Amino acid sequence: MLKLYRFLKPYTTYIAVIIILLCVQVLSDLYLPTLMADIVDNGLANKDVDYILHLGRFMLLIAAGGTLCAILATYLSSKTAVGFGIILREKIFTKVEEFSLHEFDKFGTATLITRTTNDVTQIQQVSVLIFSMMITAPLTCIGGVIMALQQDKELAWVLVVTIPILFTVIGITLKRGLPLFKVMQKKIDKLNLVLREKITGIRVVRAFNRIEKERVRFDDANADLMDNAVKVNIIMAVLMPAMMLIMNLTTVAIIWFGAIRIEDGTMQIGSLLAFIQYATQILFSLLMLVMLFIMVPRAQVSAVRINEVLATNLDIVDPEKIELASSERGFVEFKKVSFRYPGADQPALSNITFSVKPGELTAIIGGTGSGKSTLVNLITRFYDVESGSILVDGVDVRAMSQQALRAKIGFVPQKTVLFSGTIAENIKYGKENATMEEIEHAAHVAQATEFILGVEAGFDHEIAQGGTNVSGGQKQRLSIARALIRKAEIYIFDDSFSALDFKTDARLRAALKPEIADATVFIIAQSISTVKDADRIIVLDAGQISGIGTHKELIDTCKVYGEIVASQLYEEELA
Ligand SMILES: Nc1ncnc2c1ncn2[C@@H]1O[C@H](COP(=O)(O)OP(=O)(O)OP(=O)(O)O)[C@@H](O)[C@H]1O
């Protein structure tokens, strides 16, 4: 957790002020019982009303000062802790934004969300305690012992007996409680995972009548978390009364033995009262330390989880010496590229070599899982190659800045993603400063105008979270418009026409042609009609190129392509 506290730098002044305020508060708390003893022993005993009033006023002043310091310290502690939470969330978010797809796969979405929200909240809450108690508890404890001894040294043995008993109880509790605290976050992760899957996949859950099964899965995760929380709370429920019992027995012992000493004439009543208060302060400060010992390990687990994210070595980083691409635009070259997903036995791509130049349309076709998406994901450098190299405009993509590389590319992913916001804002996502004319033109080319103007608010129509209020085909067209508005040098359409009907597909491709005539275009498609006019077709089979050429060339030379054509002709004949 200390590692995380390096981010507290902007709050150094606040923390210094908090420490000073808390020291003043502790000193005032420690001084009050001595003043009270003075009133009892000298004021009350001598029936000196002036003395009582004078000291009483002084006590009020000290108490008011202490309270003011406590309020200010709590206010500043909360402000610092909340600010710290904001900094942590920002750091995690920025780091996660830099993650490659490999790192996303490694962590998983659910845990990344819990780490950014729940774990940060843990740290935030514990920080408030730490800021106040780390100073107050030890200072009160040490100061309390010194002040108690000043009142009466002989009674100190009561504390010598009580404190080890208190520590034994605390020790037993911590031994049982800590492991439970530590697994708490993991169980919250699990709950988030199940909940997320259930909510995002609600249509499938309903369609397959799995509501009951999913409910059981959720209930299991919920019950698991509850079991753990109940166990933790039972321990806490036992601990608190046990501590109070020890404290009350200590008071009884002090009064008992104190009374004997008063009877002997070796102690005054005021000193006994002050001693009781100091003993309570000491035990309370130990109680605060226990709270810290309980809360800190749980926050420690959260801190480790946050540090894991922050300390992740990024797979894909910009090189120290960035090479600028040549003035050539849109040249893409694969040189003996092989790639394997982490942990996979077989490479997803092996020995891929080809080159394309601007103005050319390259289609990629192949069976499912043959490596088509993987191939285009390597151009955008979502992953790095295992061997070989990919050059864009003559420069290895690993030597370019990711920003410069991706600025060249208009990417339409296989799984369409839209963001909540208006249709215009979603298209503008491709070019921040796009004008309304550019947005309308991109929508027109993507054959989206008709449906956009069909909805009441037109371009201002709000897209729901995840794009659930538009159809699959409409989503694809908006996603195409978002890529087109970039006026990119390289376009990648990963199976982007699959949800379009035959007529819209044909119209879109016709409108697209002049628009991207000068660019380098990659189209991944399943249908021969989409690829057959391409300048070059790459046929992939189990991660390897089984043929490269035009439709005409491949029909005679590539067996896999021949089979795809035959299967689709057969389907057309059947239709
Ligand atoms: N994130 C991943 N982690 C591990 N393996 C993956 C990952 N993504 C894809 N693969 C594997 O890599 C291989 C190629 O996948 P890829 O998505 O490139 O195929 P594709 O040809 O685009 O398939 P489809 O036409 O079904 O989209 C497949 O065997 C797949 O299981």
UniProtKB/TrEMBL annotation:
UniProt cross-references to CDD domains, sorted A to Z: ABC_6TM_Tm287_like
InterPro entries named in the record: AAA+_ATPase (IPR003593), ABC1_TM_dom (IPR011527), ABC1_TM_sf (IPR036640), ABC_transporter-like_ATP-bd (IPR003439), ABC_transporter-like_CS (IPR017871), P-loop_NTPase (IPR027417), Type_1_exporter (IPR039421)
Entry GO MF terms: ATP binding
SUPFAM superfamilies for this protein: ABC transporter transmembrane region (SSF90123), P-loop containing nucleoside triphosphate hydrolases (SSF52540)
Membrane topology: Multi-pass membrane protein
Residues passing through the membrane, by range: 12-32, 52-76, 128-149, 155-174, 234-260, 272-296
Keywords: ATP-binding, Membrane, Nucleotide-binding, Transmembrane, Transmembrane helix
Cellular localisation: Cell membrane
Top-rank lineage group of the source organism: Bacteria
Domain ABC transmembrane type-1: 16-298
Ranges of residues in domain ABC transporter: 332-567
Protein name stated in the entry: ABC transporter ATP-binding protein/permease
Organism: Pelosinus baikalensis
Lineage per the UniProt record: Bacteria, Bacillati, Bacillota, Negativicutes, Selenomonadales
